[in-house]
C-alpha cells in the first residue's frame, strides 16, 4: 500500500454512528444534536404507555474519541462470563 493511499483513508469521511436510543444512523457531528431530542421523544412516548409496559431510560454506552477528541462511536457493552 502506498503512502498516498493511507493518507486518503485516514483523512476520509468518518464512519456513521448509531443512536443508542433509536438505532438510527447519524454522522459523527449530528449525533450530539440528535441524542437529546431522541431521549426527550423516548420519555414522551414511554409516558404514554401503561405503567406496567414502560421501559427504563436507555443508558448511554462509553464513547470512543479519535486523537483530536472527536466522537467516533460507542464501545460495545461488556460481555458477561457464562463460565
Automatic annotation (TrEMBL):
Gene3D superfamilies for the chain: Classic Zinc Finger (3.30.160.60)
Top-rank lineage group of the source organism: Eukaryota
InterPro entries reported in the protein's UniProt record: ZC2HC1A/B-like (IPR026319)
The name this protein goes by in its record: Zinc finger protein 474
